[in-house]
Specification:
The protein has about 150 residues and is an alpha+beta fold. The chain has a single domain, classed as Gcn5-related N-acetyltransferase (GNAT) (Aminopeptidase), CATH 3.40.630. Helix content is about 30%, strand content about 25%. It has a five-stranded mixed sheet with strand order 1-2-3-4-5. It comes from Lysobacter cavernae. It is an enzyme of class 2 (transferase). Its EC number is 2.3.-.-.
């Protein structure tokens, strides 16, 4: 699919990613900084589609994929309730500031409420200050620091 800007006034449509969306998913993950091949994206879509605790959604404007969000839910022992975690959110540069990111967040919030989730968390690289401002504008509050240790290799 193309990468052009959306038509003025066209609302984004959000739907579950399908196997045929693998090229778009790979492109969007690459834009987020996590490149993968079409085949790797297809494998990820398949895994998510078979896991009821995960959702991978695409946003489209005029039939063109312009955004993606991945959501995972789990039981939080600390909070004693279901927790949802946004593990990826990206909107193409050409479609930013058109409501795509907000539409994706609204959809994962609806899914989360429907599934009895009490809270949603999202992590964002410290360098992504524009993303931090976006999350704050959407009602997400600064929270804990996140620490990471890579295992393997």
């Amino acid at each position: 699919m193309g990468r052009g800007a959306a038509s003025a006034g066209t609302a984004p449509r959000v739907r579950a990613a399908e196997l045929g969306d693998a090229s778009d998913v790979a492109r969007l993950l690459g834009e987020l900084g996590y490149p993968c091949s079409r085949d790797e994206a297809a494998e990820r879509i398949t895994l998510v589609r078979h896991d009821p605790r995960q959702h991978l959604l695409l946003a489209e404007i005029d039939g063109e994929a312009c955004g993606l969000v991945a959501l995972y839910s789990l039981y939080s022992v600390v909070h004693g309730s279901e927790l949802a975690r946004i593990t990826a959110l990206v909107v193409t540069a050409a479609c930013q500031h058109q409501g795509v990111g907000r539409r994706l967040l609204r959809e994962v919030e609806l899914i989360s409420r429907r599934n009895g989730v009490a809270r949603i968390e999202v992590t964002s690289n410290a360098r992504r200050t524009d993303a931090h401002a976006f999350y704050r504008q959407c009602g997400y509050a600064d929270s804990s620091l996140r620490f990471l240790k890579a295992l393997g290799d």
